[in-house]
Design a protein that fits this description.
With 287 residues, the protein is mostly beta strands. The chain has one helix at residues 2-18, and strands at residues 33-39, 42-48, 57-63, 78-81, 94-108, 114-131, 136-151, 155-159, 166-170, 181-200, 203-225, 228-234, 242-252, 255-262, 278-285. The protein folds into 2 domains: 2-63, no CATH class; 93-285, Beta Barrel (Porin). The chain starts with a helix and ends with a strand.
Length: 287
Protein backbone atom coordinates (compact mmCIF):
# COMPACT_ATOMS: atom_id res chain seq x y z
CA UNK A 1 0.00 0.00 0.00
CA UNK A 2 2.87 2.38 0.81
CA UNK A 3 4.54 1.64 -2.50
CA UNK A 4 1.28 2.30 -4.37
CA UNK A 5 0.80 5.60 -2.54
CA UNK A 6 4.36 6.69 -3.36
CA UNK A 7 4.09 5.88 -7.08
CA UNK A 8 0.72 7.66 -7.50
CA UNK A 9 1.96 10.80 -5.70
CA UNK A 10 5.22 10.99 -7.65
CA UNK A 11 3.62 10.46 -11.05
CA UNK A 12 0.93 13.08 -10.34
CA UNK A 13 3.56 15.66 -9.40
CA UNK A 14 5.47 15.04 -12.62
CA UNK A 15 2.26 15.43 -14.64
CA UNK A 16 1.57 18.84 -13.08
CA UNK A 17 4.99 20.17 -14.11
CA UNK A 18 5.74 18.43 -17.38
CA UNK A 19 2.23 18.08 -18.81
CA UNK A 20 3.42 14.95 -20.65
CA UNK A 21 3.22 11.16 -20.45
CA UNK A 22 4.11 9.89 -16.97
CA UNK A 23 7.35 7.94 -16.56
CA UNK A 24 8.31 5.81 -13.59
CA UNK A 25 11.21 7.47 -11.78
CA UNK A 26 11.98 4.57 -9.47
CA UNK A 27 10.34 1.71 -7.63
CA UNK A 28 11.24 1.01 -4.02
CA UNK A 29 9.98 -2.29 -2.61
CA UNK A 30 8.32 -2.05 0.83
CA UNK A 31 9.60 1.35 2.06
CA UNK A 32 9.60 1.92 5.82
CA UNK A 33 8.31 5.48 5.54
CA UNK A 34 7.22 7.85 2.75
CA UNK A 35 7.04 11.61 3.43
CA UNK A 36 5.54 13.99 0.83
CA UNK A 37 6.11 17.71 1.49
CA UNK A 38 4.70 20.62 -0.52
CA UNK A 39 6.20 24.10 -0.32
CA UNK A 40 5.55 27.26 -2.37
CA UNK A 41 8.44 26.27 -4.64
CA UNK A 42 7.81 22.58 -5.19
CA UNK A 43 7.08 19.08 -3.98
CA UNK A 44 9.58 16.84 -2.22
CA UNK A 45 9.27 13.08 -1.65
CA UNK A 46 11.48 11.41 0.95
CA UNK A 47 11.61 7.61 1.23
CA UNK A 48 13.21 6.02 4.29
CA UNK A 49 14.23 2.36 4.22
CA UNK A 50 13.56 -0.31 1.61
CA UNK A 51 13.08 -4.04 1.28
CA UNK A 52 16.80 -4.53 0.68
CA UNK A 53 18.24 -1.93 3.08
CA UNK A 54 16.49 -0.47 6.15
CA UNK A 55 18.94 2.44 6.30
CA UNK A 56 18.52 3.46 2.63
CA UNK A 57 17.28 6.96 1.87
CA UNK A 58 15.84 8.37 -1.33
CA UNK A 59 14.79 11.92 -2.10
CA UNK A 60 12.99 13.33 -5.14
CA UNK A 61 11.98 16.98 -5.75
CA UNK A 62 9.74 18.62 -8.34
CA UNK A 63 9.49 22.40 -8.68
CA UNK A 64 6.25 24.19 -9.48
CA UNK A 65 4.77 27.66 -9.47
CA UNK A 66 3.56 29.15 -6.20
CA UNK A 67 -0.08 29.16 -7.35
CA UNK A 68 -0.09 25.55 -8.60
CA UNK A 69 -2.11 22.96 -6.67
CA UNK A 70 -1.30 19.35 -5.94
CA UNK A 71 -3.62 16.61 -4.73
CA UNK A 72 -2.81 13.08 -3.57
CA UNK A 73 -4.91 9.97 -3.21
CA UNK A 74 -4.48 6.47 -1.87
CA UNK A 75 -5.68 3.58 -4.03
CA UNK A 76 -7.18 0.39 -2.57
CA UNK A 77 -5.24 -2.80 -3.18
CA UNK A 78 -8.01 -4.52 -5.17
CA UNK A 79 -9.72 -4.23 -8.54
CA UNK A 80 -12.49 -5.65 -10.71
CA UNK A 81 -11.16 -7.85 -13.50
CA UNK A 82 -13.08 -9.11 -16.54
CA UNK A 83 -11.98 -11.24 -19.52
CA UNK A 84 -10.33 -9.26 -22.34
CA UNK A 85 -10.64 -5.98 -20.37
CA UNK A 86 -8.02 -3.73 -21.99
CA UNK A 87 -7.50 -1.50 -18.95
CA UNK A 88 -6.66 -4.47 -16.74
CA UNK A 89 -3.30 -3.36 -15.28
CA UNK A 90 -2.98 -6.21 -12.76
CA UNK A 91 -1.14 -3.88 -10.38
CA UNK A 92 -3.18 -5.02 -7.39
CA UNK A 93 -2.81 -8.09 -5.24
CA UNK A 94 -6.52 -8.66 -4.71
CA UNK A 95 -9.21 -8.73 -7.39
CA UNK A 96 -12.78 -9.80 -8.04
CA UNK A 97 -12.67 -11.70 -11.33
CA UNK A 98 -14.93 -13.41 -13.85
CA UNK A 99 -13.16 -16.04 -15.95
CA UNK A 100 -12.89 -19.63 -17.13
CA UNK A 101 -15.30 -20.39 -19.97
CA UNK A 102 -14.75 -24.05 -20.93
CA UNK A 103 -16.18 -26.75 -23.16
CA UNK A 104 -15.12 -30.36 -23.50
CA UNK A 105 -15.98 -34.01 -23.93
CA UNK A 106 -15.07 -37.20 -22.14
CA UNK A 107 -15.62 -40.84 -21.36
CA UNK A 108 -16.62 -42.98 -18.39
CA UNK A 109 -15.56 -46.62 -18.00
CA UNK A 110 -17.90 -47.33 -15.08
CA UNK A 111 -21.00 -48.21 -17.14
CA UNK A 112 -20.83 -49.85 -20.57
CA UNK A 113 -23.97 -48.16 -21.91
CA UNK A 114 -22.45 -44.66 -21.73
CA UNK A 115 -21.48 -43.48 -25.21
CA UNK A 116 -19.74 -40.24 -24.27
CA UNK A 117 -20.19 -37.09 -22.19
CA UNK A 118 -20.22 -33.39 -22.98
CA UNK A 119 -19.81 -30.45 -20.63
CA UNK A 120 -19.86 -26.67 -20.80
CA UNK A 121 -19.67 -23.98 -18.16
CA UNK A 122 -18.20 -20.84 -16.66
CA UNK A 123 -15.72 -21.65 -13.95
CA UNK A 124 -16.07 -18.34 -12.12
CA UNK A 125 -19.06 -16.05 -12.41
CA UNK A 126 -17.33 -14.22 -9.58
CA UNK A 127 -14.21 -15.12 -7.62
CA UNK A 128 -11.89 -13.57 -5.08
CA UNK A 129 -8.36 -13.78 -6.50
CA UNK A 130 -4.97 -13.07 -4.94
CA UNK A 131 -1.91 -12.44 -7.15
CA UNK A 132 1.51 -12.53 -5.51
CA UNK A 133 3.07 -10.62 -8.48
CA UNK A 134 5.81 -13.25 -8.41
CA UNK A 135 4.11 -15.80 -10.66
CA UNK A 136 1.66 -17.35 -8.21
CA UNK A 137 -2.03 -16.78 -7.60
CA UNK A 138 -4.97 -18.37 -5.84
CA UNK A 139 -8.72 -17.94 -6.28
CA UNK A 140 -12.00 -19.05 -4.72
CA UNK A 141 -15.20 -18.52 -6.65
CA UNK A 142 -18.62 -19.68 -7.80
CA UNK A 143 -19.58 -20.76 -11.31
CA UNK A 144 -22.08 -22.76 -13.36
CA UNK A 145 -21.66 -26.22 -14.92
CA UNK A 146 -23.71 -28.38 -17.28
CA UNK A 147 -22.94 -31.99 -18.17
CA UNK A 148 -24.70 -34.41 -20.51
CA UNK A 149 -24.23 -38.17 -20.82
CA UNK A 150 -25.21 -39.81 -24.12
CA UNK A 151 -26.59 -43.38 -23.94
CA UNK A 152 -25.58 -45.99 -26.51
CA UNK A 153 -28.24 -47.30 -28.88
CA UNK A 154 -30.44 -49.34 -28.71
CA UNK A 155 -30.51 -48.53 -24.97
CA UNK A 156 -32.34 -45.65 -23.32
CA UNK A 157 -32.75 -44.42 -19.74
CA UNK A 158 -36.15 -44.44 -18.05
CA UNK A 159 -37.23 -43.44 -14.53
CA UNK A 160 -39.73 -45.67 -12.75
CA UNK A 161 -42.62 -43.47 -11.58
CA UNK A 162 -43.19 -45.49 -8.41
CA UNK A 163 -39.62 -45.96 -7.14
CA UNK A 164 -37.74 -43.06 -8.85
CA UNK A 165 -35.11 -45.59 -9.92
CA UNK A 166 -33.45 -44.84 -13.27
CA UNK A 167 -32.54 -47.92 -15.30
CA UNK A 168 -31.59 -48.96 -18.81
CA UNK A 169 -34.39 -50.00 -21.14
CA UNK A 170 -35.04 -50.46 -24.86
CA UNK A 171 -36.89 -48.15 -27.22
CA UNK A 172 -40.55 -49.07 -27.89
CA UNK A 173 -41.45 -51.22 -30.87
CA UNK A 174 -41.64 -49.39 -34.17
CA UNK A 175 -39.08 -46.69 -33.30
CA UNK A 176 -37.08 -45.45 -36.26
CA UNK A 177 -33.41 -46.26 -35.98
CA UNK A 178 -32.46 -42.74 -37.01
CA UNK A 179 -33.13 -39.64 -34.89
CA UNK A 180 -33.36 -41.47 -31.57
CA UNK A 181 -31.40 -40.18 -28.60
CA UNK A 182 -31.30 -40.70 -24.85
CA UNK A 183 -29.38 -38.32 -22.56
CA UNK A 184 -28.83 -37.75 -18.88
CA UNK A 185 -28.46 -33.99 -18.22
CA UNK A 186 -27.17 -32.36 -15.06
CA UNK A 187 -26.81 -28.74 -13.90
CA UNK A 188 -24.68 -27.56 -11.00
CA UNK A 189 -23.36 -24.59 -9.11
CA UNK A 190 -19.63 -25.13 -8.66
CA UNK A 191 -17.17 -23.68 -6.17
CA UNK A 192 -13.60 -23.92 -7.51
CA UNK A 193 -10.51 -23.40 -5.36
CA UNK A 194 -7.62 -23.01 -7.82
CA UNK A 195 -3.89 -22.33 -7.68
CA UNK A 196 -2.11 -20.64 -10.59
CA UNK A 197 1.63 -20.88 -11.32
CA UNK A 198 3.36 -18.95 -14.09
CA UNK A 199 5.71 -21.23 -16.01
CA UNK A 200 7.24 -19.01 -18.70
CA UNK A 201 6.10 -15.57 -19.87
CA UNK A 202 2.39 -16.01 -20.81
CA UNK A 203 2.36 -19.79 -20.18
CA UNK A 204 0.72 -20.76 -16.88
CA UNK A 205 -0.50 -23.87 -15.05
CA UNK A 206 -3.75 -23.88 -13.06
CA UNK A 207 -4.81 -26.74 -10.78
CA UNK A 208 -7.27 -27.26 -7.95
CA UNK A 209 -10.42 -28.83 -6.61
CA UNK A 210 -14.08 -28.10 -7.30
CA UNK A 211 -17.10 -28.72 -5.09
CA UNK A 212 -20.38 -28.96 -7.03
CA UNK A 213 -23.97 -28.63 -5.90
CA UNK A 214 -25.92 -30.66 -8.45
CA UNK A 215 -29.26 -28.93 -8.10
CA UNK A 216 -30.98 -30.37 -11.20
CA UNK A 217 -30.92 -33.67 -13.15
CA UNK A 218 -33.22 -35.09 -15.80
CA UNK A 219 -33.49 -37.80 -18.45
CA UNK A 220 -34.32 -36.70 -22.01
CA UNK A 221 -35.49 -39.20 -24.63
CA UNK A 222 -36.29 -38.40 -28.26
CA UNK A 223 -37.58 -40.80 -30.94
CA UNK A 224 -40.04 -41.15 -33.82
CA UNK A 225 -42.73 -43.78 -34.36
CA UNK A 226 -44.23 -43.39 -37.80
CA UNK A 227 -45.18 -39.75 -38.23
CA UNK A 228 -45.30 -39.07 -34.49
CA UNK A 229 -42.32 -37.47 -32.72
CA UNK A 230 -41.82 -38.12 -29.01
CA UNK A 231 -39.82 -35.88 -26.65
CA UNK A 232 -39.96 -37.24 -23.11
CA UNK A 233 -38.39 -35.45 -20.14
CA UNK A 234 -38.29 -37.11 -16.72
CA UNK A 235 -37.30 -35.08 -13.65
CA UNK A 236 -37.15 -35.81 -9.95
CA UNK A 237 -34.06 -38.01 -10.16
CA UNK A 238 -32.11 -39.06 -7.08
CA UNK A 239 -28.71 -37.62 -8.01
CA UNK A 240 -25.93 -37.00 -5.50
CA UNK A 241 -26.32 -33.32 -4.65
CA UNK A 242 -22.71 -32.71 -3.52
CA UNK A 243 -19.74 -34.02 -5.54
CA UNK A 244 -16.05 -33.16 -5.83
CA UNK A 245 -13.87 -32.87 -8.94
CA UNK A 246 -10.20 -32.27 -9.68
CA UNK A 247 -9.26 -29.90 -12.51
CA UNK A 248 -6.03 -28.77 -14.15
CA UNK A 249 -5.11 -26.82 -17.25
CA UNK A 250 -2.43 -25.03 -19.25
CA UNK A 251 -3.03 -21.56 -20.69
CA UNK A 252 -1.12 -19.41 -23.14
CA UNK A 253 -2.39 -15.86 -22.73
CA UNK A 254 -6.19 -16.35 -22.74
CA UNK A 255 -6.44 -19.69 -24.59
CA UNK A 256 -5.82 -23.08 -23.03
CA UNK A 257 -6.66 -26.74 -22.53
CA UNK A 258 -7.96 -28.46 -19.41
CA UNK A 259 -8.58 -31.89 -17.93
CA UNK A 260 -11.27 -32.65 -15.33
CA UNK A 261 -11.74 -35.82 -13.30
CA UNK A 262 -15.05 -36.62 -11.60
CA UNK A 263 -14.68 -39.64 -9.26
CA UNK A 264 -18.06 -39.50 -7.51
CA UNK A 265 -21.17 -41.43 -8.53
CA UNK A 266 -23.87 -39.46 -10.34
CA UNK A 267 -26.79 -41.25 -8.65
CA UNK A 268 -27.41 -42.07 -5.03
CA UNK A 269 -26.81 -45.73 -4.27
CA UNK A 270 -29.56 -47.87 -5.74
CA UNK A 271 -31.29 -45.09 -7.69
CA UNK A 272 -29.53 -45.42 -11.02
CA UNK A 273 -26.69 -46.99 -12.98
CA UNK A 274 -23.21 -46.63 -11.55
CA UNK A 275 -21.80 -43.66 -13.47
CA UNK A 276 -18.52 -42.39 -12.01
CA UNK A 277 -14.80 -41.92 -12.72
CA UNK A 278 -15.46 -39.58 -15.67
CA UNK A 279 -12.55 -37.93 -17.48
CA UNK A 280 -13.10 -34.80 -19.56
CA UNK A 281 -10.69 -33.00 -21.90
CA UNK A 282 -11.48 -29.68 -23.55
CA UNK A 283 -10.61 -26.09 -24.34
CA UNK A 284 -10.81 -22.92 -22.29
CA UNK A 285 -10.99 -19.17 -22.84
CA UNK A 286 -9.83 -16.69 -20.18
CA UNK A 287 -8.85 -19.54 -17.85
Amino acid sequence: MKKTFFIIATMFAMAQVCNATNDTVTVIEQPSQVIITETPSGVKVNVLGSKEDDSAKYSYSVEHQANDKMTTSQDRDWELRFPFYKNDTRNHHWAIVMDGFYMGGGISHSWDNINNSFEIGLLNIAAISYDSHHGQGISLGVGIHHKSFSIKRPNMLMRDEATNIVSSSFYPNGVEEKNRTSNLNMWALQFPLLFRQKIYKSLALRVGGIMSWNYKAQVNNHYNIGKTEYNITQRGLKQNKITFDVMGGLTLRSIGIYCRYSPNEVFKKGYGPEIKNTWTLGGTIAF
